[in-house]
Amino acid sequence: MSLASLITAIRSRRRLGWLAAMLILIVVAFGPLLVSRLLSNVGLVLLNRSLAQHGVTLDGSLADSNLMQAEQWLRTATEVDPGNRGAWRGLGYLYWATSHVSDALAAWRKVGTMSDEFVARGEVLRTVQPEEAEAWLHRALELDPQSCAAHMQLGLLYRERDQPVDAAREYAACVMVVPESLEAQTGLCNAWVSAGEPDRALAAYQAAPSLLQEQAPMLACAGVAYWSKQNYVDAATYMERASSLVPDDGRYHQWLSLIYTRLGFYEKALAQSLIAIELDPRRTDFWRQFGAVYLALGHRDEAISAYRMALAIDPDDEAARRALETLGVTSP
Question: 40 near 74, Cβ under 8 Å?
Fold first, then answer.
């Protein structure tokens, strides 16, 4: 930008008044980049002051005096230096807070990395403020519809909300962009299992790249899908392969114990339960399964001890309490 056009830009902004001459002198001495930073800093201060007074969501107008001045300062900063990312970022927040969504997105696109920033913010907020996290993640997708990271975080959010169909949609969107993502492929498969759709889970498994099909999380998901279909032979085959790849994951041994129990292989089930407990002795569901296998083998006292151990770890474990009551035993 030439000096003449810079002076014109500054003078065209009302409320800048007497500062214009000083700014012109600074331009001559230090150049437009510094002036742009100074202008944007003033605008950001005014924006933060307005947001602190009114909250993040305003009434959809720019009637607030601080916001009007903030917009003028930030706009001038971008005219002086179109590469001023801080000014564009501030304008984006200003327009979003006043419901000027298209203007906000246009400003944020000038920054280039805002989608990643929004994903990061959504990830931080996901477990503590899920509604706000969801809003930030959708903003990320408005800027970059191909953001696999945003779809993944939404998938995790919906999984935590027990919305498996919505989770599956987000994981599938990520898979379309990055088909080699193990996390997305596993999330998709597991989401369909949680939704009570084992056939769709198995279809997702079979559609994954062959290399991913041999990874433990995908094998385990296929095993659980076959379990849901009451196909315990295939369930055992896939879960055994998963367990052989990651032998120190107690969850796979727990699943094998459950599957072997259904198949009537009680000794094998007992051995798998014991491994699971050794790997993670604080899991009450592992102790309950241990008790169930002992009971199937006719070892009542050992079953009672296992159920009592579950209650010792978690006194609120109602499943363990009911199991003891079924055996006519008073809970400890």
Answer: yes
C-alpha–C-alpha distance, residues 285 and 240, integer Å: 20
Q: What is the DSSP letter of 33?
A: H
Q: In terms of C-beta density within 10 A (0-12 exposed, 13-18 middle, 19 or more buried), how is residue 298 classed?
A: exposed
Provide the 3-class DSSP secondary structure of residue 165. Answer: helix
Extract the tokens encoding 289. Answer: 């399964």
| Residue-level pLDDT at 58 | 41
- Look up residue 250 and give its two tokens: 């107690």
- For residue 125, the model assigns a pLDDT of 87
What are the DSSP E strand ranges found in 173-281?
A: none
The reply to whether the predicted model has a pTM over 0.70 is: yes
Residues 235 and 219 sit within 8 Å (Cβ to Cβ): no
Q: What is the C-alpha separation between 195 and 226, in angstroms, rounded?
A: 14
pLDDT tens column, 40-93:
555 555 555 655 555 544 444 455 666 777 777 777 777 777 777 777 777 777
